[in-house]
Amino acid sequence: MTANNEWAEAIRWIQAQMADYGLPMEELAAAGCFDPPPPPTPPPPVCYRDAAGQSWDGQGEMPDWLRRAVNAGQSVEFYRAG
Q1: How many domains, the chain?
Q2: Where are the strands (E) in the chain, listed by range?
Q3: Which domain holds residue 64?
Q4: CA–CA separation, 22 vs 16, rounded Å?
Q5: Are 52 and 74 in the same domain?
Q6: Which of 4, 23, 43, 49 could be cross-linked to 55 through a Cys-Cys bond (beta carbons 3.0 to 4.6 Å apart)?
Q7: Which pTM does this prediction carry?
């Protein structure tokens, strides 16, 4: 099925749902269905970076590249960005 066919099928499905539930466009608009999406949240700042450009924001589990370096005796602070 081509993209145009999929799009047309989706429109038909939406129109059928609107008819089944008695939803006019005005109610959908009032509910915010056509509002633009919120802007994406910026990524967290990089706290640690190695020479190869791998980075970690310091949140969550420590990445493998940094864990291997620490296990080999390197200080985490050695990789602190900034």
Answers
A1: 2
A2: 48-49, 55-56
A3: 48-79
A4: 10
A5: yes
A6: 49
A7: 0.52
